Amino acid sequence: DSGVTQTPKHLITATGQRVTLRCSPRSGDLSVYWYQQSLDQGLQFLIQYYNGEERAKGNILERFSAQQFPDLHSELNLSSLELGDSALYFCASSVDRVPLYGYTFGSGTRLTVV
Amino acid sequence: DQQVKQNSPSLSVQEGRISILNCDYTNSMFDYFLWYKKYPAEGPTFLISISSIKDKNEDGRFTVFLNKSAKHLSLHIVPSQPGDSAVYFCAARVLGTYKYIFGTGTRLKVLA
Q1: At A56, is the pLDDT very low, low, confident or very high (cuts 50, 70, 90)?
Q2: Separation of CA A72 from chain center
Q3: CB-CB: which of A48, A56, A102 is closest to B34?
Q4: Which of A26, A40, A103, B9 has the most CB atoms at less than 10 Å from its CB?
């Protein structure tokens, strides 16, 4: 158990729908990161939050949004889902805003859009 | 544009032999390089790192080599064990930032 909790582990939904993925960071970590891993792709950075504030954006679609709440948990909202959004979505956390040795990852949410 | 490339999607090695996983990068503005290991149904876990000012870092059976002139990173596992069977990702940190760029991974299978 890495200490980063992601729910749900699996999600199957239809095209056009909206889903919310949830992440609880490791205790004491202030930064939360969201990554997407599609088939045969590396992990693609989506967005970072630090202590409730958005700090950096990567290749995140406009249909996707995220937020970090006062208790530091984060949610990634995916809307108007398309078949191509099917992927593993990982959340990671770190204590620092600029982590030196990478992040601690959760076990991921597998999203299947049908 | 994939700045961090792992050109071998898979590798099979006999137990007890050396496993060598390779990674190439194109950006000179990376200051730290990491290797992560990922088992099925789990998130990636940090394995070993190296600063851009070093050319080698060793931790037990794992050694990472950095060749800056060739922009090449490799992970050596010796001796390889069946429990090392996993997907290995290399990642590079953009100088002074939060951002790690990941490769696409190499699936290592260690045969007993």
Answers
A1: confident
A2: 13
A3: A102
A4: A103
